[in-house]
Amino acid sequence: MRRPADTRPRFRRLLRRVGPLCGLLCVLTQGEMTLATERPIIIAHRGASAYLPEHTLPAKAMAHALKADFIEQDVVLTADGVPIVLHDIHLDSTTDVATVFPHRAREDGRFYAIDFTLAEIRQLRAHERRGADDKAVFPERFPAMKGLSGVPTLAEEIALIDGLNRSSDHRAGIYVEMKGSAFHHREGHDLPAAVMKVLSDGGWAEQRDLVFLQSFEPEALRQLKYKHKTVLPLIQLIAENAWDDSGTVDFDAMRSDEGLSTVAEYADGIGPWLMQLYTGVDHQGEPQLTDLASRARQRGLLVHPYTFRADQLPPGIESFEQLHRVFFQDLQVDGVFSDFPDRSRALSEEFTAQPSR
Asked: Nearest-CA neighbor of 324 among 290, 292, 277, 285?
């Protein structure tokens, strides 16, 4: 395999941007900052979601105990404008809403969080994600049972992580995604503003080293940068056009040189789907990689791909270890979203210590 390009420009870029990068571990010695090690950051995807139901407080506490660098929060709003931590704008895939409020679905059969007050959502119990067939999406994970936990607010989750940072020997950051900002706007709510208020009230709005803000919607990130004047690093998530039901964002164009240059005007990094960086293996078993990561780095953008799952490997990848080797050594990404934060962190440390192939 061809040797990777000279990484010295990337190292200098990391030095300039040391604030938002917990992956660049620093120590203070006699008043001077020196670099101890460099490794990709590990973002606990929806918490330790391989082990406990996603976006529950137990999953977040476990992610912290497993020493994830950052813990992800997907955020939507209630009818009374309270930010809650939930991956979808709907409640039916991960809660018992259809049992508790059987007659509250919209015409499409879905139960929207925005139609329920916080007091009503407090009555729900979260469970492992289920598909349209009511079966667990990952059947070998935590039993798809009800009653484990409720749906937390963003403020509650931040308070949990803040407390664990204080009481333990590990300091984790938060990685907040605004889900469906345009949808919320149509419903009469301002999701970015609500998120920023919670961060400000909790004392996190200025903590560049502990907070990332992310969205699939460029307008939400522009609002954060230009209207709210946030100093927090912003990550533009990149999906596939086929996934976007609204058709309002051209993700294919976003991956072009012109698109990346536009992203670099308002964001600090990209969060691509891992298959946008790795496309499979050739007839000799060699990984086939795109140039998206290198072109993003040329524009000073961080690269944090999603989602790393040991129980859902990409085509051509035979092990979780091989997956990380491709992304950490060959692609040299700056961090990854992982359902298995403990295993990803161990591999981050292992492969960073090894010479690139």
From this structure: 277
- Write down the domain spans for the chain: 39-353
- Catalytic residue of the set 55, 64, 87, 324: 87
Residue 127 annotated in active site: no
Give the C-alpha separation, 323 to 105, whole Å: 40
Q: What is the pTM of this model?
A: 0.89
Contact between 195 and 175 (Cβ < 8 Å):
no
| The CATH number fitting domain 39-353, selected from 3.40.50.920, 3.90.1300.10, 3.20.20.190, 3.10.450.50 | 3.20.20.190
Helix residue ranges, H only, the chain: 8-16, 57-65, 97-100, 118-121, 154-167, 181-186, 191-201, 218-222, 251-254, 257-266, 292-298, 320-325, 341-353
Question: pLDDT (tens digit, 9 = 90+) per residue, 256-277?
Answer: 999 999 999 999 999 999 999 9
87 a catalytic residue? yes
